[in-house]
TrEMBL record:
GO-annotated biological processes: ammonium homeostasis
UniProt name for this protein: Ammonium transporter 1
Lineage: Eukaryota, Metazoa, Ecdysozoa, Arthropoda, Crustacea
Ammonium transporter AmtB-like domain location: 17-132
A Pfam cross-reference name: Ammonium_transp
Length: 132
């Protein structure tokens, strides 16, 4: 039926749109890295770049395990109780997960610039994991 075909096309276009926008937002990570490296002394440039990379990696794991289920899992009006570590997550929701993840990681990276050269490495990562 034509209605079924149109519904499939709509779903695929939604997924495509979310993934393209996610990739664009993910490029903000590189922009913030350049901004932060330009704002600190040269001896701390490597530290800033490592923080930005680990924001994505550790934040991704934290968001996958806990963040997305709490924010978007089925549950009551306050907290989600499903989708822990993507368990039971419908296939069409993975693009939404990616979209929300890149924003969570970017939010953590924005703060890394304001605490550059002012915060210990370990304290920053505890904060970053908790934020994402």
């Amino acid at each position: 039926r034509i209605e079924d075909s149109l519904q499939i096309i709509r779903e695929n276009m939604d997924i495509f749109f979310l993934l393209i926008i996610s990739f664009i937002v993910f490029f903000l990570q590189a922009g913030f890295a350049f901004l932060e490296v330009g704002s600190v002394r040269s001896k701390n440039a490597t530290n800033i770049l490592i923080k930005n990379m680990l924001d994505v990696f550790l934040g991704g794991i934290a968001f996958w395990l806990v963040g997305y289920p709490i924010a978007f899992g089925k549950g009551n009006g306050v907290i989600g109780t499903t989708y822990w570590a993507s368990n039971g997550l419908p296939d069409l929701e993975y693009a939404k997960w990616c979209f929300q993840f890149v924003f969570a990681a970017t939010a953590a990276t924005i703060v890394s610039g304001s605490v550059a050269e002012r915060c210990s490495f370990h304290a920053y990562f505890i904060y970053s994991i908790m934020l994402t």
